[in-house]
Please model this.
Amino acid sequence: MRLIFAGTPEAAVPSLRALHASPHEIAAVVTRPDAPLGRKRVLTPSPVGRVAAELGLPLIKTARLDADATAEIMAHEPDLGVIVAYGGLVREPLLSAPAHGWINVHFSMLPRWRGAAPVQHALIAGDVTTGVTVFDLVPELDAGEVYASRPHPIAPDATAGDLLGELSAVGADVVREVVDGIAAGRAPRTPQAGEVTLAPKLALEDARIDWAQAADRVLNRFRGVTPEPGAFTTVDGDRLKLLDVRPAPDAAAAPAPGEIAAAPGGVLVGTATAPVLVARVQPAGRGAMPAADWFRGLRSTPRLGS
Model:
C-alpha cells in the first residue's frame, strides 16, 4: 500500500523506520515545522523530520492539517494514513480521504488513558501495566475501533521517558502487523470495551511535587513528569528541579513533609509516610548537580515547597 505517515517526536521514529523497512511505500511524511531549540534558539527539525530526510522520504512540514496540507497529502494518493504522535487533529475531508482511512498508534490500552499524555498519567496513577493500541481514527478523541493491542509491564522505577521509549518499540511492531493485515484484507476491528479514563496534556504546574502526599504518590508523580514537564519543588520561592528521586533506604527517623536532611547518596525528604531520597537537582539559574552538593552549599536548612 501507499502510506502517509504523520508523526513528530522521537517516540514516532521506530514506527516510521519499521514501515519504511516493510514492503509498503511511504509516499510522504507529515511532521510539525522546525522549532527553535537550545539557548541560541536554532531552528531544528523534529525527530521524525530528521529521520525522514535521512531516508530520502518526501516531507510535508505543517502545524495544522488544513486545506492546503490536505491537498498536498492527497496529491500523493495514499491508500492508508498512519499517525503516531503528530500533534494535530485529522479532520474531514482528510480523515476519510485515503481508501482505508487512518490508523493511530496510541501508547495505552484503550479506552484507558485517552488523550495526549497516556504514559505520564499511567505512571502518576500508579498503574503497573500499560500497552499499545492501534485503532481506527475517528472524529471522537481516541474512540475508534481497535485493530490490535499489546500489553506491556511498567517497571517500578521507570520514568515517562523510559516507558515511552519501550512503548515506541512495541508500537513499531504492532503497527507494521496491522498495516500488513489491512493490505491483506485480514484486519478485523473490535469496539473499545471498559472504563474510559482521560489523559490530558500536562501543564508545568502538574509537575510540582506535593510533599504532603504519601511517598508512593510522590514517587509516581516524579516518574510521570520526568523528563517532561520536569518535576520541581520550591525553596524560599525559587524553583528547584528534581532530576533523580528514589525510594529512601530504611531511615531511623523520617523528616516531616517537606523537611530535608543529609543522607548517603543525596538528601532525605519527608512525605506524609516514608521519606524519599533526592539524588540529583538543578537549582534556579545553575546547572545540574548532586543533591548532596546542593545541600552542603545551603546557609540554612529550608523546607521544600516553601
The first strand starts at residue 2 and ends at 7. The chain is about 25% helix and 25% strand. The chain has two domains: 2-184, 204-296. The helical segments are 13-20, 47-54, 67-74, 118-124, 160-184, 215-224, 291-296.
